[in-house]
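Example A, followed by Example B.
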Amino acid sequence: MFEELFSKRTQAMKASEIRELLKLVTSDDIISFAGGLPNPKTFPASELADVCTTVLQEHQAKALQYGTTEGVLSLREEICKRMKRTIDLDVGPDNIVITSGSQQGLDLLGKMFIDPGDAIVVEAPSYLGAVGAFKSYEPNFVAIELDDDGMKIDLLEEQLANLKKRFVIPKFVYVVPTFQNPAGVTMTDSRRDKLVELSHEYDFIIIEDSPYENLRYAGKDIKPLIVKAPDRTLNLGTFSKTFAPGFRIAWTMGPADLVRKVVISKQSADLCTAPFSQFIIAEYMSRGLLDPHIEEIKKLYSTKRDIMLKALDENMPEEVSWTKPEGGLFLWVRAPSYVDTKDMFLRAIEKKVAYVTGTAFYGDGRGTNEMRLNFSFETDERIHTGVERLAEVLRDEIKRQSP
């Protein structure tokens, strides 16, 4: 109904494959590795009652009112202090705009940079939410494959050279360099250096999506791209994974002139992000509660990651491989090429286990034999049981489809 009234942009929109899949896994008896949900045990509910009371007593006039588009100053200042303390990055409030979740930040950046037909570079596989946000602005996607060390920068360099011959320079390169969604891999320090070098050579912006930066369980920290190239990197951070996703508080950080453009774009989107939520997180941070809370989250998720990896080792057929993330919420499973994980999905649901199919994270039909698993949400016991069920489904599928 009314289809002829829709804009071309709306007609091209498609429902999120992950969101549609999640509708099928609402039953409590299905063990779901499909969502990217933080575990409710990590929500700081016990401290929030007192924090909320303080905000309502001391800041009610501003916390319950409209706010500035840039975001509550005290929250931006707390983020600046933490950036200096944790990654030795000197930024001021003018380098930060608060957004209604990172998803809004991605949409605003798409609106800022992309004209129809512009080239942009993404990872393959890439975060589905980013691809969806950018796609509505009609770019030409240039997808660069990943390996266990992140985006293959040699392939990127090759593609950039080929594009330049056609007088095409990408507007930006979008990466999730640390504990990537969906693959769980981390871009090496040397590849980050090369990416920065290429950004200068070809004059593009780097969009660094960093929702999992603070969730490292093993290995050594690697400097974020915004530390290496603060003059040409826009970094997206969020409190959804380290505080609570229901608050929908995130930020975009970068050069002040670019951040100002984000602010102007946001003014026509929602005027401002909810001040009440911002004041609560600012008060929480000012009390020194966030960093100890993140350490507790890391302990919980590290255990869950280890349980999943151990269960995969013990149960999966030898033809199946998977990534071994040092942090984040996800790992990536590859079955033999003749296995179609999308076709297999309903058979997995019959066995009461769910995942996200690999094709959801590509724009060109690749990933038919791949899948993403989340380890943060389910209980320890259900993680092990779920992997056993999934391994049984894969064994049956390999036997059924093997040439």
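Example B, a separate protein, is given below in the same form.
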Amino acid sequence: MSRSKQIIGVAAFLFGVFVLVPLMIKLTGRWDFYYTLTSVALLSIASAGVWLTFYIGRINIGQGAYALVGGYVSAILVVKYGVSFWLTIPLAGLICGCLSILIGLPILRLKGVYFAMVTLVLTEVAKLTALALPITNGAKGISSIPLPGAISIFGLTIIPDFSQLASTKLAFYYLAVTLMVLSYAGLYRLVHSRIGHLCRSLQQNEELASSIGVNISYLRVIAYSVSSFLGGIAGAVFAAISQSIYPSSFQVADSINFMLNCFLGGLGYVFGPMLGTLVLYFGWDLLFTTGKFQLLIYSSLLIALMLALPNGILSLRLFNRKKAEP
């Protein structure tokens, strides 16, 4: 795809999410869609982190743990220490990134299947830790989290106080979408950088990459820490939206869904997790009318899609103008 077409595509996407979607919601009066799309945006951010670990040839089934940690970090800093919510977003990501380095240094040396098995228990470990620690308030969790305050520069209000708004749905929607755009822009840049190309070599043959001087452990740790950073910021914003965080806010099922979003959208495409999250989220809701058969139909359709499109929805000829790297 030519550079000009890429720019047009990005401009169209930005116009759609920032202008067209709010306009359509206003015309239809379906204000509940703001919460739905905000959730999709945040889930896609966490899924983007999982995609990055797939990019280095590892299966990550523990992203829910970092989303939970990020939510608690933000809630504790805001409620107990009076830190501005806006500062807690990067802090939650950084703490999750540092935590992932401590966890990743030993387990990233394991073979792929063993790494996946270890990450599978991380979400449950984070949940049990939240239940046990006094600072997290145990099973009661942390509630009554204040809404984000205003940000002013030289007396000019850049971001209004959310508590003063008639409705926070639009404000949180713009916040989530902005973070999603920034996250995917950063991910795209990383993947197409020198480090990204080196990371891709790990998918193909780690032994060969190591033999030509690629520092495999270093690249794995970088990718895993960035992945966890994205999970942390998504969890922090989720806590602010719900104004509460509990040990059960993110569970193993959420970690599995983050992984499925990547499979469905396409592991070979940077924006695969975004599309996969959208399809899975709305697909589950659309099947709600089927009642007790919802899970059966949902699972069957998901398996059928993966069999028919092993490289994800973005591998369809409609999208596959040029395969991303990813």
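On Example B: The chain is about 70% helix and 5% strand.
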